[in-house]
Amino acid sequence: MRRTILKYPDAVLARKSLEIGEITDELRQLAKDMAETMYTNEGIGLAAPQVGECCRLVVIDITGPDKREDLRVLVNPKITAAEGKVVSEEGCLSVSGYRSDVARSEKVTVEATDLDGKPLSIEADGLLAVCLQHELDHLDGVLFIDRISRLKRSLYDKKVKKLQRERAKSLKEAEAAQGEGA
Questions:
Q1: CATH number reported for the structural domain that contains residue 121 in this entry
Q2: d(CA 122, CA 130)
Q3: Which of this chain's residues are annotated to bind Fe cation (predicted)?
Q4: Same-domain pairing of 134 and 172
Q5: Catalytic residue among 135, 166, 173, 175
């Protein structure tokens, strides 16, 4: 089942997620739903908080959005090693219509468990390293826009507020039009 992706500034996106104690059928279904949601929205990664679930679960497939050949589901992932620096352009399914350069570690090692409870370790560089860091940030309530300059963040926040005002105005106009027609 496809889930709704929460959009910034939703408060859930700023919360730290809780460790997963037990892998249940509900958790497996959440992972399946998240993968479907990620693919439907042409993403390459999605964290549970982005669909309103504050648990430490991410799905990643950097072969997407066109292909769907390497789905990784990570339970309680954590970065255990990082080295180097790289700057690359990032976007986010929860941050509509905005991309910006973000500095990240060039290489990371991530430890997690899979949906069978088996431990796994991923040594990553390139796009996979960036994607892992981006998604794991979500688990700590951090968005990529929290890692950009104050000026760029301020400009984005102004854009979001303007869009919110425009939506509110359109909603009021639609309600008024309905009231006139009743």
A1: 3.90.45.10
A2: 13
A3: 92, 134, 138
A4: no
A5: 135
